[in-house]
């Protein structure tokens, strides 16, 4: 028999977010790096910062920043090459901690997850107590710190986890939720990206309070199907459940060139290499998909994408590369030289489903 839910009928959601995850692992494993400004990434002409330590952040160093810019802003910055196999192993340790407290876990990245602990309060007393216990276990078993947000829905728990970083905890109660949201800038809302924020600013929407003034029909005219979500979060409402069975939406890889590339032949050759790497990842995960998307980032950092979709899942590396090449061809002649090219496969299915589809074709 399940333990009783809270009398208010609301969920109890935690958002656990590791503090400077990649950089903190590197500082944990090498004491000489502790207390020093650190960037995980490659220090080269086309390198990009994957993560920055808290000591590097006052200098403006942040993830996704070109390494050359990071070095300019922080001359004493130390670069460490990423060790993703180590990060994945530590992530698995952290996930194992979560499972002691609830089976309802939705990983959002290697370093963060949403947890629904509504049905597990009786054993621990409160959601806040569970969050503190999880943070203590993570520190004891990995030597790392995590920040936690506690609230009655996923949106607010995510916002709360950012409030007292690093190594902090923040609670947003049902009474506090609508008031808390009203004061925040819309660009700080998870689910509102830079392009949407700019569009909102153009409409005079700068804060949660501004967003709350708009009827849902008016929002729908500007933001389509996302209008209901924006309408809800401006009032502290988010009915999305924590979904432990959430399926991966896409899988992709990319490469940044040492020098800008302008020839079609060179770009197609790079795409062939990327397709081989991507298909190897798909094979390992037993995934295929129906939509292939090429991403190109020009020398001025402008980014464009082109996609090709088919009715049945991609069957092999050659088909993946062909679809990518067809998508890439639509960008020629190039607007300017290219610094990065990437390839993504989406509309994913598991390989046994893909295989069944192909058998159907042959049987006909």
Keywords:
disordered C terminus, four-stranded antiparallel β-sheet, 12 strands, 3 domains, DNA polymerase, domain 1, 364 residues, Dna Ligase, domain 1, five-stranded mixed β-sheet, globular, single chain, Alpha-Beta Plaits, EC 2.7.7.7, 14 helices, mutator protein, alpha+beta
In short:
The protein has helices at residues 21-29, 67-73, 84-98, 121-124, 127-142, 154-161, 177-182, 194-202, 208-212, 216-223, 227-233, 264-285, 317-329, 351-363; strands at 13-18, 38-41, 49-52, 78-80, 105-109, 112-116, 146-151, 169-171, 250-261, 287-298, 303-309, 338-350. It has 364 residues and is of the alpha+beta class.
Model description:
Keywords: Cytoplasm, DNA damage, DNA repair, DNA replication, DNA-binding, DNA-directed DNA polymerase, Magnesium, Metal-binding, Mutator protein, Nucleotidyltransferase, Transferase. Its cofactor is Mg(2+). This is DNA polymerase IV. The protein has about 375 residues and is α+β, with helices and mostly antiparallel strands. It has three domains: about 10-170, Reverse transcriptase/Diguanylate cyclase domain (Alpha-Beta Plaits, 2-Layer Sandwich), CATH 3.30.70.270; about 175-235, DNA polymerase, domain 1; about 250-364, Dna Ligase, domain 1, CATH 3.30.1490.100. Helix content is about 40%, strand content about 20%. The protein contains 14 helices and twelve strands. The strands form three sheets. It has a five-stranded mixed sheet. Helix 3 packs antiparallel against helix 5 (about 125-140), helix 10 (about 215-225) packs across helix 11 and helix 12 packs antiparallel against helix 13 (about 315-330). The protein starts with 12 loop residues before the first strand and ends with a helix.
């Amino acid at each position: 028999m399940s333990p009783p839910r809270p009398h208010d009928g609301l969920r109890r959601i935690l958002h656990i977010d590791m503090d400077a995850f990649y950089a903190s692992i590197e500082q944990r494993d090498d004491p000489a790096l502790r207390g020093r400004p650190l960037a995980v990434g490659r220090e080269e002409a086309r390198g990009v910062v994957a993560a920055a330590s808290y000591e590097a952040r006052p200098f403006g160093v942040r993830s996704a920043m070109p390494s050359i810019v990071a070095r300019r802003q922080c001359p004493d910055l130390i670069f460490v090459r990423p060790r993703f196999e180590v990060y994945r192993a530590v992530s698995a340790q952290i996930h194992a901690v979560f499972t002691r407290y609830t089976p309802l876990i939705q990983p959002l990245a290697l370093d963060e997850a949403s947890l629904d602990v509504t049905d597990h309060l009786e054993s621990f007393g409160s959601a806040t107590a569970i969050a503190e216990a999880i943070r203590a276990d993570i520190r004891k078993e990995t030597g790392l710190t995590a920040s936690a947000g506690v609230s009655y829905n996923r949106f607010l728990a995510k916002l709360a986890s950012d409030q007292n970083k690093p190594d902090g905890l923040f609670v947003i109660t049902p009474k506090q939720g609508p008031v808390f949201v009203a004061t925040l800038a819309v660009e700080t809302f998870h689910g509102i990206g830079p392009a949407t924020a700019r569009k909102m600013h153009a409409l005079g929407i700068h804060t949660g309070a501004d967003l709350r003034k708009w009827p849902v029909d008016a929002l729908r005219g500007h933001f389509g199907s996302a209008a209901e979500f924006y309408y809800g979060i401006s009032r502290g409402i988010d009915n999305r459940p924590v979904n432990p069975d959430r399926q991966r939406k896409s899988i992709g890889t990319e490469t940044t060139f040492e020098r800008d590339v302008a020839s079609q032949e060179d770009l197609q050759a790079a795409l062939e290499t990327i397709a081989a790497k991507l298909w190897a990842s798909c094979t390992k995960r037993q995934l295929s998909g129906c939509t292939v998307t090429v991403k190109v980032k020009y020398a001025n950092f402008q980014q464009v994408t082109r996609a090709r979709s088919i009715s049945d899942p991609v069957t092999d590396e050659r088909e993946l590369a062909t679809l990518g090449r067809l998508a890439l061809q639509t960008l020629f002649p190039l607007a300017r030289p290219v610094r990065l090219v990437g390839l993504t496969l989406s509309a994913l299915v598991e390989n046994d489903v893909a295989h069944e589809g192909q058998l159907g074709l042959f049987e006909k």
